[in-house]
């Protein structure tokens, strides 16, 4: 029903760079028309220009529920419907929670959770009326297993997994599909927290790229994640866990959590020890 072919209409948030841009590339290569949305106006214009005639740039703050509804309604009106919504926009905060403040926590909740909810509430009723459509939410391996030093990020991604997995059962009776993408570490601008999250904050932060490599192996490219994610969407997988080693980690945490915990403590001790040592 929802296989990619010419004439399909898709909205991708967080599409100016990283996984969102790579998803847009893959969708356009498959013949879809893509509304590439991002809060970064200049970035999304550049992205759309590089993607060609099948891409339509949209400036969107996913925290704005009214703007999200307007986008979905406009695409449905002009294109005749919406086949795919990729709720991909997200931000990341790293470090120890004892050094976070309410503003940081609220912002990551607003973008990573409410952004997904806003998109779903805008598109899902329309898909129910269509009796077709596929909502794809970008979660993370951190939504399936602990991710210390990324605790607020992990909180939001657990929420996305729970929301997606539960909604999937409600939606199937209407012919609507729901999936969650759960990648391990990905080398994207998301890891450059200053660019994604706004002004810097006081307090120690780990080298996120190094930390993720120690914890989960070499970082994947956004292109690899997008290729495997779109194959998973085509196969209507509920959880698209990428790459294979991430699936092993998720299984290990499910069946032998103590082993994963012991390894995680070693990684955290190494990362914090090196990082705090540089401060002194």
UniProtKB/TrEMBL annotation:
The keyword Translocase does not apply. It holds the Pfam family adh_short. Keywords: Oxidoreductase. SUPFAM superfamilies: NAD(P)-binding Rossmann-fold domains (SSF51735). GO terms for molecular function: oxidoreductase activity. The keyword Nucleus does not apply. Belongs to the short-chain dehydrogenases/reductases (SDR) family. This is Short-chain dehydrogenase/reductase SDR. It comes from Chlorobium phaeobacteroides (strain DSM 266 / SMG 266 / 2430).
